[in-house]
Each structure stands twice: as C-alpha cells, then as structure tokens.
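User: What would this chain look like folded?
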Amino acid sequence: MNHDCSVFCYKDEHIFFAILSSLTLLIYLPLSIMWRPIWQSINSNANIYLSPQFLISKSIFQIFSVALNKTLKHYNQSLEGLVYFVVTLVFIAYTIFYKPYNYHRCNLWTRISLLCLAWSLMLSSIYYAVTYHNFSFWISMQFGGWIILIAIAWVIQHKKYPSLLYSPKGVNINTLFKFALTKQVMLEEVIKKHSHAYEVYDESAGSQINSKNILLSHDINS
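Assistant: Here's the prediction, encoded as structure tokens.
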C-alpha cells in the first residue's frame, strides 16, 4: 500500500483492505502462539517438540524485523541492517541458552540458519556502507560463508549428535511377491520382514509355538 498511497491517504477500498489486513494479523499471531503448544500436547505421534517460550520469542523477533523494514530501512539501509544484525545475534544467544527443541539436531540447524541470516545481514550492511559494489564478489562472499557454516554444522552433527529418530522398515516387496506367487512361504520370513515378533503363541492353549516349524500355505487359485 505504500506504493499506492505514499502519504497514507487510505480511502474507499484501501481503508477496507488496510483494516482487514490488520485484523487478520492481530488474530493470527496470538492464535498461532497459543495453538501450537496445545497441538503438540494432544498429538501423541509427535516426538520432537518446540518450546512455547521460543515460539513467542520467535514471533516477537519476526514482528520486530518487519517493523524495522517498514521504518528504519526508508531512512538508512546500512543502519537498519546493523540493528537487524545485532538483534539476530541476541536471538542466536537466546537459542543457545534456551534450547528451542527437545532434539539436539533441530537446535543445531536452528542456530546455523540464524547464523547464515546474520552473515547475510553483516555483508549487506557493509555493502551499503562501502563504495566497492562488485556484485559477483559480494554474492561469492555470501554463498561462501553459507557453505562454510553448513559444512561445520554437518561435521558437528555427525560427531556429537547421532540420529535418535527411528522409523519402522517399510514393506519388503520381494516378500510380498513370494507370498502372492508361491504356494508356500515360511511364516518366519513374513514375521521377520514385517514385525518385531519372531514367535507366535497359541492363545487357546496358552503355549508357545516355534514359528520355524510352521508353514503358511497360500493357494493362488483361491
């Protein structure tokens, strides 16, 4: 709207859209902050949780960033980039002392993404402050810094933070074909491929049956 009404002369349809946008933001932000922790608490399938305090801090950080972009940027882009850079460093320090997630790998990559942002902000501020404006040089510096940060994070992840998330193995296609196209297949093979059980039980007799001695017959003509 700044481009259409540089002096904020909202009228007719513009005032309607301005009010609608403001109300939408005012409703969305509190609801998103409130419902995310509630969704986490009722979702029994979630293994990684985000701290509600971090979610609130992140929303404040985002609102502050938008406010900087709409105010200080119009007066001095270098100063806006410098302030944004300092605020980002403070937010990075916050993620170090107050871990956002209950999983180390997520915390690591959250900090690395913020460090990449801080690196870009620092280069942008320097770019507007100096007279050397070789675009290729600055782009190379930016992507070079990102690659170094990501490489460091990758090494730290593999050395300090092993993966703790394990998912069950998918259906083995070979076993399914054997089951569908052959008349007999060992029950033990099916059990081993598709479950963690290696023995079956006779519930009526209460006795244990060794699965190695059971053949599962399958008539392909039935």
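The radius of gyration is 29 Å. If you want, I can go into more detail on any region.
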